[in-house]
Amino acid sequence: MRYFEKIVNQAEDGLMLKDLLRPLGAGRRLRRRMLAEQTIRRNDRPAFLTERVQAGDVVTVDAPDDEPSECEPERLPFGVTYEDEHMLVVDKPPAMLVHPTAGERTGTLANAVLYHWRTQGETCRFRPLHRLDRGTSGLLIIAKHKLALERLERDLKRRRIVRQYVAFVEGGIEQEALTVTAPIGLLPGQTVQRGVVADGRHAVTHMSVLARFANSRVSQLLVRLETGRTHQIRVHAAYIGHPVLGDAMYGHGAVYGLKRQALHATSLAFDHPFTGEPMTVHAPLPADLTDLENGLT
Predict the structure, then answer these.
(1) pLDDT at 238 over 90
(2) How far apart are CA 260 and CA 262, in angstroms?
(3) What pLDDT score does 103 carry?
(4) Do 134 and 97 form a contact (C-beta atoms < 8 A)?
(5) What's residue 215's pLDDT?
(6) Strand pairing class (263-271; 137-143)
(7) What is the dihedral of CA 257, 234, 166, 252, to 10 degrees?
(8) What is residue 254's predicted lDDT score, i.e. its pLDDT?
(9) What is the Cα–Cα distance from 237 to 180, expressed in whole angstroms?
(10) Exposure winner among 228, 259, 288, 296, fewest CB in 10 A?
(11) What is the CATH number of domain 79-296?
């Protein structure tokens, strides 16, 4: 893939190549790889960032070779919400791991996405921008190349990517909206389970009530993440005394026939990493949460 191509104009004559390439926004590690693989070129010859360009020079930058994938493509169902040459936004089914683990090498979203790309003749590496727990369904952004990932990561760090979830939680929440600000970290002696701990990482979750189901004492929430800590929504919901329905780790486990936590990543809003176009993508509730909602009504 070509990241950059430009004919140097008179106003740019004499600039160092690194200054000409500044709008590319490539990080230090990516720049080192491109230099090592000689994908930064001036007049079709390998170039150094300290070279000075001249008017009429043709400067190109191509993506370095992708590292081989660590998992095998596998035909599995998932939803494609948006796709172009730079990124893929998927609707992950519940009960699907994002990445293979030591004990589960197949059946993951990574396997499924690699198969999807293979059918299109693409050989991208699986690069998820963020994570979803196995039991959480919904939207996930996957970058198709390293520069796209770097740009998306910068926007995520600067809180320019808005992630919203629908959650069904135990109990009736009286407030129409609330914000939970409480640090999250591993609980003492645990390797997976998180909690609100004094020395945890700063975490902020915004919640608003979409519906209250009085007969069953359940609230449906729209949740917006300001930070992105592991298990953040589940931990903060349990912390305020309203754990997510079906959450075996932080709540009371299986209820209303649920086989997982009632949490769904329903929308993402962000600027496209290359065009700058504002984008919003949505994923409707999956069948199990639709059935839950209808049953509670």
Answers:
(1) yes
(2) 6
(3) 87
(4) yes
(5) 79
(6) parallel
(7) 20
(8) 84
(9) 9
(10) 259
(11) 3.30.2350.10
- What local confidence, expressed as pLDDT, does residue 230 receive? 95
Q: What angle do CA 228, 122, 98 make, to 5 degrees?
A: 30
Model confidence over 16-43: pLDDT tens digits?
Answer: 999 999 999 898 899 999 999 999 999 9
Q: CATH 3.10.290.10 region(s) of the chain?
A: 2-62
Whether pLDDT at 15 is above 90: yes
Tell me the catalytic residues. Answer: 133
Distance CA 57, CA 192 (A): 54
- Closest by CA position to 94, among listed 219, 234, 259, 267: 259
Say how far apart CA 232 and CA 135 lie, in whole Å.
Answer: 14
Residue whose tokens read 């320019």: 160
Delimiting residues of CATH 3.30.2350.10 domain(s) in the chain: 79-296
Confidence label for 253 from pLDDT (cuts 50, 70 and 90): confident
- Name the CATH superfamily for 2-62: RNA-binding S4 domain (3.10.290.10)
